[in-house]
Amino acid sequence: MAQHSVAQQAQRALEAHLLDGSWPVGVRLPAERALAETLGVSRNSLREAIFCLKARGLLVSKWGSGVFVTDRLQTAISSPWRQLVADHPDLRWDTLEFRREMEGATAHYAALRADKTDLKKIEGIIKRLTRAYETGEKNEEYKADADFHEAIAEASHNSMFLYLHAGILRMLREHISLNLMGMEDPSGKITDDLRRQHLGVWDAVRKHQPEAARQAMLAHIDFTRIELERRQG
Amino acid sequence: MAQHSVAQQAQRALEAHLLDGSWPVGVRLPAERALAETLGVSRNSLREAIFCLKARGLLVSKWGSGVFVTDRLQTAISSPWRQLVADHPDLRWDTLEFRREMEGATAHYAALRADKTDLKKIEGIIKRLTRAYETGEKNEEYKADADFHEAIAEASHNSMFLYLHAGILRMLREHISLNLMGMEDPSGKITDDLRRQHLGVWDAVRKHQPEAARQAMLAHIDFTRIELERRQG
DNA sequence: GCCTGAAAATTGGTAGTACCAATTATTTTT
DNA sequence: AAAAATAATTGGTACTACCAATTTTCAGGC
Fold first, then answer.
1. A-proximal residues of B, 82-141, CB under 8 Å
2. Measured in angstroms, what separates residue A65's CA from nucleotide D30's C1'?
3. Which residue from B minimizes the CA distance to A96?
4. Co-location of A97 and A187 in the same domain
5. Does one domain contain both A57 and A113?
6. Paired residues of A60 in beta bridges
7. Which nucleotide is nearest to B62 (CA to C1')?
8. B185 within some domain
9. Where in the sequence is the domain holding A30, given as residue range(s)?
10. C-alpha distances in angstroms, B125 versus A38, B111, B156, B202?
């Protein structure tokens, strides 16, 4: 009869409570045994549903305490790759290698083909980036950083690279940035290095030096990789 | 001890099989009872993991039949381009640039990390390829060619490259090969060049010379591009 | 009266068994 | 040889039992 399995129905029921506000953020869910009874399902099926919602980041469970509702706005949208990258930290190095090659190639072709419109756009982003560096606005810095990379992708005039940047690469960049942004940088050295690296890429693209642009971008990715390694082995 | 729950560990074990290719698309997983025993977890915990992967669309289960691997991971990445390439033939040069960079990078990391198993596999394919060249079996030559590139991708030991090769790159390769294979080659010069290029890549990978491998692969892709240009402007 | 701390109840985590229903493989019958 | 009946396998669900971490309760002492 049931189009969907009992566990799926249970998951729907839980999601409904999360959506209609009857279980606000931070609240503790009824105990599994009681909740299973009220939903009319076994504790097994209920746990399957809960486990899935936990994996999606909507719930967290604390041993001996209960299951709680988390802030679901962050993890609402996730691609299959995001989930995999989050679950398998060792995959991060694979994706970083991929990023390194792709961003390097993109910078190469950007330096080869950037026209006046492209250069003007990138220059504007560089100004935003510099201003964000100086004022220390981390949020604007992150946004300008992302815009910079996508502007480079546009300037490459290659649909393939452009789509990669709009899809996977953007996701990977977000994932890395979240880990790297929260770090302390008391001396401001890292911020300074990042600024120098972006200017290096921009300079090579502006002067139409493909290989210099590639090397500058590779150095930038390598820098983020090394900084990431320093923090997480 | 365990930072993560048993169910989460089970989920990662399943994901690992999906990522490293030991469970290809369409394959049927071992029965839940048997799989739970091999993983050393209870069937309940295993089912929680499976349920989550089903919800993410990576697995589908059929009543009384088994659990199967879907092609979500590959289609999620390759589908946008499949449509684009089909709709816009002039996109071919963009995709060739993309192929050039990706295959070059893959050869680089293959030379860096290929182990004895990888080398043995590649060597076998090289022998098939040589035999196909000599006997002039175009069909076997094409198949061995494709296997060669994918074996290189496996030897790179990078899940990202591996999946790209299994997805979009395979599609692009098919697209190119069909145009290139059907051409006449009376003097046998092109076949001879192709053979020399494959041997060049194989030699660099075997000797663990990353940059030589990259350059050899780039030369190979450039050759196919030039031959394609000669025929279709 | 209030604090302390140990015992008890509660809760999520895991394992195991049993049974059902759908599918598949095997055997039997025609 | 084909078809039908049967047995074995598989996912789906439920239930019980126990463990370990947490919270609550409550007795005892100051």
1. 84, 88, 91, 94-95, 97-98, 101-102, 105, 109
2. 32
3. B160
4. yes
5. no
6. A68
7. D11
8. yes
9. 6-69
10. 61, 16, 16, 10
Rounded Cα distance, B26 and B70, in Å:
6
Tell me the pLDDT of chain A (233 aa) as tens digits: 446 789 988 988 888 887 666 787 788 999 999 999 999 999 999 999 999 888 877 889 999 999 998 865 444 434 556 666 666 777 778 888 998 999 999 999 999 999 999 999 999 999 999 998 888 787 788 889 889 998 999 899 987 888 777 667 777 777 666 666 666 666 667 788 888 999 999 999 999 999 999 999 999 999 988 888 887 65
Nearest to A163 among B48, B49, B80 (CB): B80
The tokens for A39 are 């939903």
Per CB-CB distance under 8 Å, the chain A contacts of B105 are: 97, 101
Residues on chain B touching A97 (C-beta within 8 angstroms):
105, 109, 158, 160-161
Token code pair at residue B126:
């090289």
Residue-wise pLDDT tens digits, B203-224 = 999 999 999 999 999 999 999 8
User: To probe the interface with B, which of A6, A32, A43, A48 has the most B CB atoms within 10 Å?
Assistant: A48
Pick the last residue of a domain from B70, B102, B121. B70
Give the Cα separation of B118 and B179 in Å (integer): 30
Task: DSSP for B166-230, please give it.
Answer: IIIIHHHHHHHHHHHHTS--TTSHHHHHHHHHHHHHHHHHHTT-HHHHHHHHHHHHHHHHHHHHH
Domain identity same for B225 and B154: yes
Residues B227 and B188 in one domain: yes
Residue in B11, B16, B98 closest to A161 by CB: B98
Question: Cβ–Cβ contacts within 10 Å for residue A38, how many?
Answer: 10
Nearest CB to A158 within list B15, B16, B94 = B94
Indicate if B165 and B194 belong to the same structural domain: yes
Task: Find the Å distance, CA of residue A10 to C1' of nucleotide C6.
Answer: 40
